[in-house]
Amino acid sequence: MAKFCILNSPISGGNSHYKLSTLLSSIASVLFLITSALFVLTAFRNTLTWHFQKFWGASGNFWQSGWDKILDHFGEDPFTYWYYGSLFVTVGVYWFIGGIYTLLDVFNRPNSLRCYKVQPGTNEPVDLKRILMVILNVLTNQFIVGMIVGLLWYRLMLWRGFPEIKTLPSFHWVLAELSVHILVEEISFYYSHRLLHHRLLYKLIHKKHHEWTAPIAITALYCHPVEHVLSNLLPPFLGVFITGSHVATAYLWFTIAVISTLNAHSGYHWPFFPSPEAHDFHHAKFNQCFGVLGVLDRLHGTHNLFRDSPAYPRHTTLLTLVPARELYPDVPTCRKSAAEAELPLTEDSLLSNHKMASKMMHLFCAVVQS
């Protein structure tokens, strides 16, 4: 099937019209997502969410009993759970998942998984010296910077107040808080990340993270200490602070956030996983795709190059085992294809194509009317 390409032309009305159109499109997209989510939740509130609520442990027979055992073993001191517990969860998840990715990159095995690489041919295998530098930097950020900032976070949570540790929150309340966490992270990460790309801050702080134009999973926290606080620690914490979450909800959210950033930096586009194409494109091009979800990138127009790139069609969750690059291969531009076929794009050829399309439309209407 032939692909029809639309050539870019100046937008009438100038940049203001274009920005207004982008803003309205972004608002429409956000409203559509919110409306769809509310419709689904409303439609299934008495069925699907009920079953999840029972699984969560509405009667307290499963999760609550397990939580009680943890409290019996470690005590009920909030500092233990908010400080040491948060450190254990984030560091443990990071190196367990990141370690698996690192083994794939170091040994370059199994070969059958290389087809899922976002940038084929890069880090195959990865340089061991560079990995050791990454490991040293990440451990420094986690155990020196992270532990110092963790004390501040705990003081802030004490000041703000949080639920008693003994009783776990309900399933619906956890869902509501996670929604806030995701929204707050999108806003805070986008603007803090974009701030780090300012010319006065990029060279001093953020350039270190961008040494990897084709990132691997454990480079997610490979950065300057200031960046680690501003973009890695602050955005996930803000949602927890605003909602005053239970520490167990915080554990769940921190786990999701760590797995998400590892996936975004992994360099692999796995089936049934969220697409890492946007953030991988950010590492390759530097000034595109600053956010997590892409909503603010769409609003501010910081994804236009990405939308025009061959990577954009691949920016989707794969529902098949076929690699993204096979489903959506790189294709030459319209002009290049025409040149290769020795068919230059002229006004006469475009007019001829328009006339042909008009004739086909008239013929189709005649057939329908008959």
Coarse shape: globular
Q: Report the total helices.
A: 15
Summing up helix and strand content along with how strands pair, one would put the structural category as mainly alpha
Please give the largest β-sheet: none
Helix content: 55-70%
Strand content: under 5%
Q: Span between N and C termini?
A: 28 Å
Helix-strand topology string: HHHHHHHHHHHHHHH
Number of strand elements: 0
For this entry, what is the oligomeric state of its chains?
A: single chain
Unreliable spans: 1-14, 333-354
Q: What is the radius of gyration?
A: 25 Å
What number is the mean pLDDT?
A: 82
Structure characterization notes:
The structure is a single chain. This protein is mainly α. It has helices at about 15-45, 50-55, 65-75, 80-105, 130-160, 170-195, 200, 225-245, 245-265, 275-285, 295-300, 305, 325, 335-340, 345-370.
List strands and helices in order, with pairings.
Elements lengths: L13 H31 L3 H9 L6 H12 L3 H30 L20 H33 L10 H26 L2 H4 L22 H19 L3 H19 L11 H9 L9 H6 L3 H4 L16 H4 L6 H7 L6 H23 L1
Helix pairs in contact: 4-5, 4-9, 5-8, 6-8
Structure characteristics:
370 residues, single chain, 0% strand, globular, mainly alpha
How do you describe this structure in short?
The protein has 370 residues and is mostly helical. It is built from 15 helices and no strands. Helix 5 (128-160) packs parallel to helix 8 (225-243).
